[in-house]
Amino acid sequence: MKIAIVCYPTFGGSGVVATELGIALANRGHEIHFITYKQPVRLALLSENIHFHEVNVPEYPLFHYQPYELALSSKLVDMVKLHHIDLLHVHYAIPHAYAGYMAKKMLAEEGITIPMVTTLHGTDITLVGSHPFYKPAVTFSINKSDVVTSVSESLKQDTLRLFDIKGEIDVVPNFIDVSKYDHTFTDCQRSMMATEDEKIVTHISNFRKVKRIDDVVKIFYEIQKEIPAKLMMVGEGPEREPAEQLCEELGISNKVIFLGNSNEIDKILCFSDLFLLPSETESFGLAALEAMISGVPVISSNTGGIPEVNVDGVSGYLSNVGDIKDMSRNALKILQDDQELEKFKAAAKEQALQFDINKIVPVYEFIYQKAFEMA
Ligand code: GMT
After folding, report:
1. Are residues 29 and 111 in the same domain?
2. β-strand pairing of 2-6 with 87-91
3. Residues with a CB atom less than 6 Å from ligand 1
């Protein structure tokens, strides 16, 4: 099948999922066309089955806002015709589902029928999409998609609650390429980051408000009072600077390393002992799953789709949003007892295996067949 994948090319979870899905589909013999404004960050190599088409928005002085969805829908029409693409899979409703629908209508004028699958990822529904400025357009484009999927049951319920949805929503959870996390590096270069007696705690995100970055710092502050520890902060975003400031104020700057965005997440997780994800809301929590497959237990909030990924008392612990005391107590329960740590590490990995890419990609292939029948 020839599939166009539309996504954000950045470090965000939706772009990562779309890219990994495209790569896996290409490995299964499909021809994949990524259509977005920059080559996706996790798309290292293009190949016979993987193509990338850049969407350009020409600058024009009249445009106060650059019309990206117009450029995207035109690019989709051109690429579908040029490469005889069979199906559109758009990740993140705004503005991709809207642009995809316009492309579909333009192609229909020329006698070309193309099904569109829309995958909802979280903030496109919970934070941005439900804003009154966007809601009518988001509702319209979800309802006009041939098949809609959401990455968790929780996100499905949020979508049904926030929008007037006419059709079904299929839950297809995010996944993990297990083979990528089969570490062969010896000591994971742990010694470069911490001394032997120090535990390594990690947080990875886009450092937005929703991630509650100050909670990450405060939980670590409690941990390091009790045991020797280091905190690895991975990612970039508006909350990074305030977090660095907070570390300074708490006098823990020498124990916290801000690494910025990284393409070596597997290596960082390889030397991590514990992962912190105290988010305000999270439709799935892909970063937690990436930690778990590396054998890193997760201390998280119990919000949104996180409980569908991180199992309380098994792969880590869950607490109410903002309950820093409970989160630090749970973190110490795991970190202070080596036997307990080993037990949680093994269980985290085991739990992550449920989301093996080889189980989930065939589900998307089934979804594509369904889209053909609906179109
Ligand atoms: O977490 C973010 O802010 C990025 C966002 C995105 O759209 O890239 O992530 C969302 O999609 C991910 C992949 O499906 C999910 O794992 C994240 O939980 C979800 N983020 C939120 O719901 C806040």
Report:
1. yes
2. parallel
3. 12-15, 17, 92, 121-123, 126, 151, 174, 206, 208, 210, 281-286
